[in-house]
Each structure stands twice: as C-alpha cells, then as structure tokens.
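Sample entry (452 residues):
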Amino acid sequence: MHHPGQEAVPLTLPQLLMHRTRRDGTDSGPTLELSYRIEGPLDVPAFIASIGDVVSSHDALRLAICECGVAGPHQWARETPPPAELVTCQIIKAGSEERFTRYAVGLATKDVAEGWDLRTELPFRLRLLQYSPGLHAFIATFSQLAVDGSVRGIFGGDLWWAYRRRLGDHEAVAEPSPRFLDAAAEREAPAANSRDIADFWRRRYARIPRDWGFRASSAPGAPATPDVAGTPAAAGTPDTAETGTAESGNVVTGFVLEGERLRTMRQAARSNSATEFIWIQHALVSAVFEHTDADSVPVWLPVDTRSLRERRLLGMLTLGLPMVVDRSTAPSDLVRTLTGDWFDTLKHRRVTRETVDAGEVADLGNLVGGPERDVRFAYVGHPRHRIRDTVGDLAVTYGAYAPLIERVVSGVQLKAGSWDDSVHFRLTFNRSRLTETAARQMTAAVERILLG
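Predicted structure, serialized as tokens:
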C-alpha cells in the first residue's frame, strides 16, 4: 500500500472511465495546460508563495491515485510540499523574445507529451521562466485524471487572488474551496431521481444514428471527392488557419471574432434568444448538416456535473455526453431545440456508475479518455476577463505559450474560447472523413452562420 493511514476514496465515474483505458497504472491520461505571458515587475517570491496557497486550498492538486492492495482504483490527498518544490524557476538567456517564446512553447509541448504516475508524483508541472526582470512566462500542465477543464478558470483566478493578497491587498479574498475528496466520496450515493436519469440517457442513446457520414463537398450538385487517409500530424497553434501536410490525418483551421464582428455575433445570439454557447453550437450543427444527408447528428460535449454549490470545486467531474440534433429548416427552431436539449442534459447530468448499470448504456464506458467522436464541441467562457488583462502593475496575456499538441479526431471538433473582448475558434477535421476543401467550406459556413 502506498498510503498507510491516509483517507482514501473511490474514483469518480469520469476518473474511473479514464483510468480503465490505461490499465498499466503508470500513464494517468491526457494533460490539460495553461500559460501566461507576464509583463511588468513580477514579485517572484510572492508569486511562488501564492502557488503554494492555491495548492493548499485545493486537495485535487495534491491527489495521489493507485490501484493497490485488494481495493479498486482509489485516491487520497498528500500534504502540500514547500512552495520551492512546486515550481521550476529558470532564467532563460535568449537572444530575442521570439527565441524565448519558441523555447517556452517547446517546454510546454514537452510537458504535455510526458506521462503521469500519480502513485508517486503530484498531478501538475509548473514552470516560471524569466526572459528579463520585466517579462516572465508561466507554464502549467495538469493530469486530466485529477482535474478537468475548470482548472483553467479556478486555478488562474485563485492564483491571482493569492498574489494580490501576498502583496498586501486585503480585499482580495477568494471564496472557500470545497474538498474534492468529500465530493468524490458522495458521488456514488443514489440520487433521488437516479432511475429517471438512467431512463433519460437510455432514450437519448437510442436516438444516436449508427450509420451516417459526411459529404466531401457542400457545393450543389458537386460529385463526392474521394476521401484521403493519412496519419496524425501536429496541429498548429490555436486561432490560425493552417492545413496539415499531404500525408497528415488532420486539417486544422480557425478564426477569431473581435471588435465589430464580435458585437455582430453577440447581437445575433441575443436576437435569437440564445446564449453564446447555444449560438455557436447552432452554427456548428448547421454547418455539419450542410455536409451530410443524415436526418440527425450526435454532438458530443463535455458536461460539467458539478452542482451549484460545487462551482469552485476543483477536480475531475466532467463527462463527455451526447446531444442528438435533428435537421431543422428554421434557425429559430434549431436554437429552441438546442436550448431545450441542453437544459434536459443539465437536469440529468449526475451520471454515476449506478446510472450506467441501471440504464444499460454500455457506450458510457468510452465517454472519457476513449475515442474521439464524429462531432465534438467544447466551449470555455471567461466572461469577466480579456485575453490580455491586468493584475496590479502586471499585464497578463493568457494562452501565450500554447503547446504544439497532436489532435486525433474521427470527424469534426470545434473548440471555442470566449473572452470579454474576443472569441477564438479552432476546428480540427479528420482527412479520412472530409477533404481539405470540405473542411474549409465548413469553417467558412460556421463563421457565416455565427454572424447571422
């Protein structure tokens, strides 16, 4: 046993599903990342101490996980190490900021590619790189077996709150952080409506079309273009339109809405009584329908299973769940359907192992950490932040050192990052399902539909 005397609890369902895909127990799954470009007089000791404050306040950042003894997969929390052991600090002698940026992106890419062994190591890697006293890069990677996408907002927000407090801002007080292990221990308790939840997902899974595909081109009367198979290639950085090489498996495209075009999109969403999330999903689904003859399409979304009181709970509580969208001739009908289906999804989002067994939904076992689905949509909102923000005397640019990550998708994946002043779209297409021409047509269609 690796944890004598420690309080151990079972993994949550999302953790368990991911763990099952890596039975050797040494690779704990995919990695999440965040990065900041920090301009200004950063107080490095205060920053490092602030990281210690955040790690102490969230037990999910101290998780250890193993499948040892007679127990099944389980987890417990370590003590917080000294702050100096949490962050790797380096002064980088680079001839230019461009070379410094390339070096930082290279380290981020290396960290993302490295596996995790949560039996012996913490579920994060943190680096603070100094180019000059007025410019730093902060790079963080996290094991997705310990945390989900909420880490980007919760960790970042708490880090800057703690930093302000360290510099004497006594009004910078974050809300208390609930314990993830308490939530994980309660997750498998039967819900009052567990039978209703199981029935809901059984009905929804029954609607998923088993046979459907994309047309190579949406041009009226255009003949189908032969599919091009290939092997995965590294995707480019977000928000740039680029194409993989001839032998690659993916085409990656993207665009940014800001300024007047962003206002136009948000006004179009309001005019259709839609949230930005629903409006973007409506644009994606409408564009997909332009490239298929199917009467319905399943769209897989990461669904946060937290309750309202758990909104600041850091840990792995997100499941990939499907919405099945029927073809609609009127955008207003599609928006209403998506809105209603999303509320139904949220109402039934507490999916547990009991739900899976009662609902006889075998496919739930592949939702997290399993194969990429035909159409996936992920939306991350930062409603109170700009992509370049201020923290006291500092200017902080988010996502400035994004790693070059290989993405393997079976069909289409759209990731949208929404900020107060911009929304960044990145689409990834599998070349064996859509040609490059069709991929660019679909990207243009998404952008066109977004703008109303």
